[in-house]
Amino acid sequence: ILSNRLQRACPINALQKGFIAAPGCSTNLKLLQALIKSTKKDQRTLGVLFVDLAKAFGTVNHQHIFRVLGQKDVDRHIIDVLRDLYTNCGTTVE
Fold it and tell me: What averages of pLDDT result for each successive group of 10 residues across the chain (94 residues)?
């Protein structure tokens, strides 16, 4: 319920592959393989970047998240539930 209501208020970009319910990893690997193959065929250079998400969640200010949700007209009750979920909560990326 929370996810559906949040997605209506804050749509996810179609290009986003992380933190969504989809086979993003295999899709991204296939895309990377095709890109490498095309780059070799056309004798071009290619730069690839992998981002370490180890501290990504610790840098997002929770109050900022709640403020933006309010600006997006997310129901106050939903914001309060999320605030409760974030209280004394931590995240680990493995």
Answer: 80 72 73 93 88 64 89 90 85 70
**pLDDT score of 54:** 61
C-alpha 84: how far from chain center? 21
Question: What secondary structure does DSSP assign to the chain, as a single string?
Answer: -HHHHHHHHSPPPTT--TTSSS-HHHHHHHHHHHHHHHHHHTT----------TTTGGGS-HHHHHHHHHHTT--HHHHHHHHHHHTT------
Q: Which two tokens stand for residue 86?
A: 């974030």
Single-letter code of the amino acid located at 89: C
